[in-house]
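Dear colleagues,

As part of the handover before I leave the project, I'm documenting each prediction I ran so the next person doesn't have to rerun anything. This entry is a single chain, and its sequence is reproduced below.
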Amino acid sequence: MSHVKTALGVIVKLLLIVIFGFPFFWMLSTSLQTLEEVNTVTPTFLPASPQFQNYVEAWNYGATGMGVYLKNSVIVVVAIIAIQLVVMVPAAYAFARYEFRFKKLCFGLVLIALMMPTQITFLPVYLMFSDLDLINTLWPQILPFMTDAFSIFLLRQYFMQVPDELVEAARLDNASEAKIIFRLMLPMAKPAIATIILFSFLGHWNDYFWPLVMTNSDSVRTLPVGVAQLKQMEGLSNWNVIMAGNGILVFPILFVYLFASKKILHSFAYSGIK
């Protein structure tokens, strides 16, 4: 019976690998094919001769090239993650370790924010940045995301699991609150920090709606908008170039995920809800 369960487990895992891995394989294969191979009636799974020129053509797309979109994406994502950590770590520490007036109400508002979709808030945010004359810059793509409700919640759960004895011992050694956060709390919350960074990276690296709404110039737009415009220019025929553009967008995501996946699994295995 155990052998049957093991075999079924292997089959299910292989099936999941095929279901989720095949689209990436197809994207990579198509991005390296010639136009003739792409347009053949019989699907071509492997290119006869890899055409890396497709990536060059996708990279040089438009007046600015993909390099500008990539630079903007890196600036936006790195700035968002840095600001989020600066804001959310003290907030999560306060919710986990301090007692103050209206604490439950404030944390309830954080939880309500978890259920608030971006599409509801984009219009007032757009009007606010328009009044500040910041539309068509990188700032509207960064500042609205300087905090995240889920990340505060996750960090709070981690900080609450740190034994009180360790915190009290640090205070007896005259450690400041900042020292307790950086020397005690954050090292023990590394899996949660890795999870937050990865989720924030994925969400904002792939964000198409917000940069499209907040900008009207290619010089400040991000990579998802550039890839979408590549598809519009190439139409529905040059799928090899379009898939090469998608590859430029997706490969950094795969690299970051492979780097942080173990931390994420550890995070959800360790964290509890109190």
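Residues 62-270 form a domain with the MetI-like fold fold (CATH 1.10.3720.10). The longest helix spans residues 66-97.

All the best with the project,
I.
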